Amino acid sequence: MSLLAVENLVKTFGGLRALDGLSVSVDRGELVGVMGPNGAGKSTFFNCVSGVVSPDGGRVLLDGADVTGDSPESLARTGMVRTFQHTRELETMTVRDNVRLAASDQPGERTLPALFRTESMRDREQEVRERADGLVETFELDHLADEYSGSLSGGQRKLLELARVLMLDPNLLLLDEPFAGVNPTLTREIAGRIRALNDEGMTVVVIEHELETLTELVDRLVVLQQGSLLVEGDPETVLSDERVIEAYLGE
Ligand SMILES: Nc1ncnc2c1ncn2[C@@H]1O[C@H](COP(=O)(O)OP(=O)(O)OP(=O)(O)O)[C@@H](O)[C@H]1O
């Protein structure tokens, strides 16, 4: 059974059909790239799947369960998390605090003075701190841990964003343009991190415009056009497909 399946997804904005009967599925453990010309519906696909917007038709199935229209918080609890094209960290907070804050629940952190926290709350807070520090180190952001996130470069922000979503311990990770605005060195670094997560068993779906990096990274490519599936398959076959070439030439 697929880990993620969308069936006949439809999303309209006014008269525009951003998704027009899209059906795509992703198996557990896959690393899949999603490409397509501007406006093809890639972000809307992620938005519908991750509960950011509700589709007007069709279904989203997660591990066989119908999760259509479920909230992003509820989906994150089941293990699906996503990043956004524009990163969402708080610029006036340090890198370390941004990662810590991403943890799904930190009981008592903001509501109770330290004195009244139970031992289990303190244990949980300690666990969050250690996990966050571990991720900051793994992503080689430790030298920036106490800097404000606003001072990071575009590529460093993308790394921070990855560290933040990993705090939620996902089994399905949706990445929206993780290489946009990133220099070649950090692009290789981020691609390596994504590959390593997938090697450890995480299912990953990546939207990306930068086709060279994407095709080197993924096992399978899905190409959208005008809100539906144009072609899918292994990268080499997809990129030499006449329909794909035409879709990109026509951009
Ligand atoms: N919130 C919205 N309101 C109105 N129209 C929208 C909205 N979100 C997306 N659209 C439209 O839906 C279509 C698909 O947009 P979407 O962002 O999903 O495409 P995309 O493939 O991700 O494009 P890009 O590569 O440019 O990011 C576009 O025509 C876009 O203008």
TrEMBL record:
PROSITE patterns recorded: ABC_TRANSPORTER_1, ABC_TRANSPORTER_2
Domain of life: Archaea
Gene Ontology molecular functions: ATP binding
Gene3D superfamilies, A to Z: P-loop containing nucleotide triphosphate hydrolases (3.40.50.300)
Keywords: ATP-binding, Nucleotide-binding, Transport
InterPro entries associated with the record: AAA+_ATPase, ABC_AA/LPS_Transport, ABC_transporter-like_ATP-bd, ABC_transporter-like_CS, BCA_ABC_TP_C, P-loop_NTPase
Domain ABC transporter: 4-251
One Pfam family linked to the record: ABC_tran
Protein name according to UniProt: ABC transporter ATP-binding protein
The species this protein was found in: Halogeometricum salsisoli
